[in-house]
């Protein structure tokens, strides 16, 4: 059995660890609230641009306009996945879940698949799994702006329009609640027409719908990538807060167990000393 000094050292070590995990949990909680605010603030823009595209594509369908290149569906020969992950770990099973989701998706395809990876954890996973990496982006940070996704969307759109890839999907962790983050993969390109109310007579667009789509669809793709990054950041901080809170609770339980063990060892030591004293006295009296 360990002696009292060793147990005290272990208690001190676990207490120091608990202080760190508690601080990390508090920091993650603060970052989670800010990321939630950014996510909520960005939704109206995403919803509005989606609605406008729905109206414009409806008008274009009624006219003689050609289909925009980003909306053309062609025979699929190669697929690309934009894989969004955190740069850091210590967020429970979040990274493993989103990486396994990507692996299952790629494993279910009969066609070549490459990846544009956002985040160190996804990049490292793709390298270990021998997934072809078209581009990798890291250090996006906790407060990215829409401009930070410009280069990412440019690479994706350029390769799609040139025919290097025929489908683009985006993989990320969707923020559901503080304790629930859902690995999600959805199609990004070709852009599919959005269902809107049939009455679009109240909208007049200038210039013609095709010219508007030339400007709007690349921005739409960029917004979707940006929104997925915000979802991933919110999920990361939520998962880290929960993981660090759980680690703090476990450390507290461990400390309680070690204190109990230390008391037992101390009690056993005192009992042993008393027995020695009693035995010595009995020997002297005898």
UniProtKB/TrEMBL annotation:
Q: Which UniProt keywords are present, listed alphabetically? A: ATP synthesis, CF(1), Hydrogen ion transport, Ion transport, Membrane, Transport
Subcellular localization is given as: Membrane; Thylakoid
| The keyword Membrane appears for this protein | yes
Single GO MF descriptor:
proton-transporting ATP synthase activity, rotational mechanism
Sorted alphabetically, the Gene Ontology cellular component annotations on this record are: proton-transporting ATP synthase complex; thylakoid
Q: Which Gene3D superfamilies match?
A: 3.40.1380.10, ATP synthase, gamma subunit, helix hairpin domain
The record describes its membrane topology as: Peripheral membrane protein
Q: Name one Pfam family in it.
A: ATP-synt
List the InterPro entries hit by this protein, alphabetically: ATP_synth_F1_ATPase_gsu, ATP_synth_F1_gsu
Q: Which SUPFAM superfamilies match?
A: ATP synthase (F1-ATPase), gamma subunit (SSF52943)
Q: Where is the signal peptide?
A: none
Q: Which family does it belong to?
A: Belongs to the ATPase gamma chain family.
| Functional summary from the UniProt entry | Produces ATP from ADP in the presence of a proton gradient across the membrane. The gamma chain is believed to be important in regulating ATPase activity and the flow of protons through the CF(0) complex.
Instruction: Output this protein's name.
Output: ATP synthase gamma chain
Which organism does this record belong to?
A: marine metagenome
């Amino acid at each position: 059995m360990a002696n009292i000094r060793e147990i005290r050292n272990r208690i001190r070590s676990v207490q120091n660890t608990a202080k760190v995990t508690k601080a990390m949990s508090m920091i993650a909680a603060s970052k989670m609230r800010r990321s939630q605010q950014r996510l909520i603030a960005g939704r109206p823009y995403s919803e509005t641009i989606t609605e406008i595209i729905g109206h414009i594509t409806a008008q274009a369908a009624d006219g003689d306009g050609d289909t925009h290149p980003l909306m053309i569906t062609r025979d699929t020969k190669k697929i690309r996945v934009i894989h969004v992950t955190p740069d850091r770990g210590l967020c429970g099973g979040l990274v493993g879940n989103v990486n396994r989701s990507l692996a299952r998706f790629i494993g279910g395809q009969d066609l070549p698949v490459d990846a544009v990876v956002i985040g160190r954890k996804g990049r490292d996973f793709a390298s270990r799994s021998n997934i072809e990496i078209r581009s990798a982006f890291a250090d996006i940070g906790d407060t990215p702006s829409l401009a930070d996704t410009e280069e990412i969307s440019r690479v994706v759109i350029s390769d799609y329009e040139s025919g290097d890839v025929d489908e683009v999907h985006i993989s990320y962790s969707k923020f559901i609640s503080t304790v629930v983050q859902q690995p999600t993969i959805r199609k990004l390109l070709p852009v599919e027409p959005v269902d809107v109310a049939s009455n679009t007579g109240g909208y007049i667009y200038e210039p013609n719908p095709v010219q508007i789509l030339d400007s709007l669809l690349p921005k739409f793709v960029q917004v979707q990538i940006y929104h997925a990054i915000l979802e991933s950041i919110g999920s990361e901080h939520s998962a880290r807060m929960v993981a660090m809170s759980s680690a703090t609770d476990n450390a507290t339980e461990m400390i309680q167990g070690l204190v109990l063990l230390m008391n037992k060892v101390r009690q056993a030591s005192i009992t042993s000393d008393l027995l020695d004293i009693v035995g010595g006295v009995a020997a002297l009296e005898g």
